[in-house]
Write a structure and sequence with these properties.
about 150 residues, alpha+beta, three-stranded antiparallel β-sheet, 6 strands, about 30% helix, about 35% strand
Length: about 150
């Protein structure tokens, strides 16, 4: 009578070395082996991709912030039904030409006046402007929509 390994539940236990040998043969046959150099190459390529993505994001962020124009609205005055004046301060990049879109809004925030003004480079860091915007109807406010470099 041969001795068999019996589990606590009374069943037969298979020999572990035979199962791993069979699994190894199947893995080799179907290309499921994990080679150390493949694993290392995968993680190196992931790291290179991550570093490149972070470098790209940093470059885009710096590029956008260098061309950014800081605007601070200082006030507006509704002149009459046909005009609004908007006062603001702008801080463009040093020596850059820029333009600003200035708009007049009614009480429902609909655009009733619009004007694009171009500015030449100036030596000061920040400069104040007051611009008149013609309107089609009575406006309740005037704002600077956006500014950009030319």
């Amino acid at each position: 009578m041969t001795k068999r390994a019996i589990t606590k539940r009374g069943g037969r236990r298979r020999a572990a070395p035979q199962r791993t040998a069979l699994q190894k043969k199947l893995d080799d046959r179907y290309g499921r082996t994990s080679l150390p150099w493949r694993r290392r190459a995968f993680w190196i390529s992931v790291a290179v991709f991550a570093v490149a993505a972070i470098a790209y994001l940093v470059w885009i962020t710096l590029q956008n912030s260098l061309d950014d124009i800081s605007i601070a609205e200082t006030g507006y005055l509704v002149v009459d039904e046909r005009a609004v004046t908007v006062s603001f301060q702008a801080t463009p990049p040093s020596g850059a030409r820029f333009a600003c879109a200035i708009q007049a809004l009614d009480e429902d925030f609909g655009v009733v006046g619009w004007r694009v003004v171009e500015y030449a480079p100036f030596p000061e860091t920040t400069r104040s402007f007051t611009e008149r915007v013609p309107t089609l109807a009575l406006a309740t406010t005037g704002t600077v929509k956006e500014c950009w470099t030319i």
